[in-house]
Every structure is written in C-alpha cells, then in structure tokens.
Amino acid sequence: MTGQLAIAACGPVPSPELAQWFTRPEDADRLVGLASAFWEDANRRWYRPRVLEPSAGAGNLVRAVIRACPMARIDAIEFDARHIPALAALAPGRVTYGDFLTVDLPRTRYDIAVANVPFDGGEEGPHLARIFDVCDRALLLLPARSLHGRARFAEVWSRFSDDDAQRKPGEVRWYLRQKVHLISRPPFGEKGGSDEIVLLDARRAPGPCRVRWM
Q: What is residue 200's predicted lDDT score, i.e. its pLDDT?
C-alpha cells in the first residue's frame, strides 16, 4: 500500500477551477473526531463552542460538527454562491458568501476551526495563517506536501517553532498535537491530483504530538 491517495470531486458538481476537492463524509467525521473530548465536554456542559469553517463547500465538515456537537455555533464561509442556500439551511450559526482571506470576521477568537482549505498552487499558506490568527485550535485536512514544503510555508509553520525568533512579534506559538496519515483510504475517484492526506490537530496549548496511520 502506497501513501499516494487520489483527491477528486465529492459532492454536487464541484469546480476544480475553484480548487474544490470536497471532503468525503467519512473523512469529515475522522477529522472532527480528533477533538472528540472537546465536543463531549461541550455537550456535557451545554456549552455552545464557536466553530469556524472557512471553506465550507458542500457542507460535509459542517454536518460532521453538528453530529459531534449539535449545539455548536458554526460560522461557515464559502465563495461559491451555488452552495450558499444549502449551507444557510444547514449551519446553526452564520453563513457568509465571500473569500475567507478578505471577509470581515468577529473580533472574538473562535474556539476551533475545522477546515479543508484550498491547496492548489500553495493556496493553503495564507488560509492557514489567517486560521491561526483567529482561532485557538484548528482541525485541518491537508496534503502531506503542505508539511514537507516548508520553504513555501515558512511563515505559517514558523508558528510551531520552539525558537521564538522564528515568529513575528506578538505571534503566539502553536503546537501540533495530533497527526493522522490516511494511508488506507480508497481513492476518491478517477480525476484530481494525487497526494497523501494528513489530518492535523493544531492548538495553542502545549503538549506532545500523537502520530497515527489509518
């Protein structure tokens, strides 16, 4: 079994031109499940966590969050107008039509982001940077090359460095707490690029990193 997994369309008429490679429902549940203890605690305390989905697409990650924590307040952002009506009917929070990199966001930080950000041509760099600026925790689906291409994403991954000099003044250090390599998943389809996919749990709270293969 190789680590190369096909990324292709999943959901209603996605557009490769818009870098839309939608998360499969089972992978959405796996990603959201990285924070199972967080959701269980919120449900037990009747706490409504503020959740950011910055590139909501067909809404599979939104649905996964609702399954895990029905009381979550989800801000879903999507720049393809075709998906806005369905997201508005689904998301228990706010749905914004626009580009995550430019839309106005609340001043209060989100408890957690759940995201499969655009990654064609290195687009994930600025998306990740803004997620880290506005959230306390981030569950991320990324191609493995986003981790290995450190030269391209030095500004993003420098936030995880134990060298304070690598970060900009005022930037808070982040910690990679979980990393899951999806090596046993079947291909999404016949079209799309090929990459190994990783699921990441990144937090501002320090702690060791657990690595798994699925």
A: 96
Burial of residue 137, with CB atoms counted within 10 A of its CB: 0-12 exposed, 13-18 middle, 19 or more buried: buried
Residue position matching structure tokens 């499940």 = 33
DSSP code, position 53? E
- 72-111: pLDDT as tens digits: 999 999 999 999 999 999 978 899 999 999 999 999 999 9
Above 60 in pLDDT, residue 173?
Answer: yes
Q: Whole-model pTM?
A: 0.87
CA distance 18 to 165: 36
Would you list the DSSP string of 18-45? Answer: GT--PPPHHHHHHHHHTTHHHHHHHHHH
Residue 72, number of CB atoms within 10 A of its CB = 23
- Residues contacting 47, CB < 8 A, separation 6+: 41, 71
Measured CA to CA, the distance from residue 95 to residue 98 in angstroms comes to 10
| The domain over range 24-182 is classified in CATH as 3.40.50.150 | yes
What are the extents of the domains in the chain?
24-182
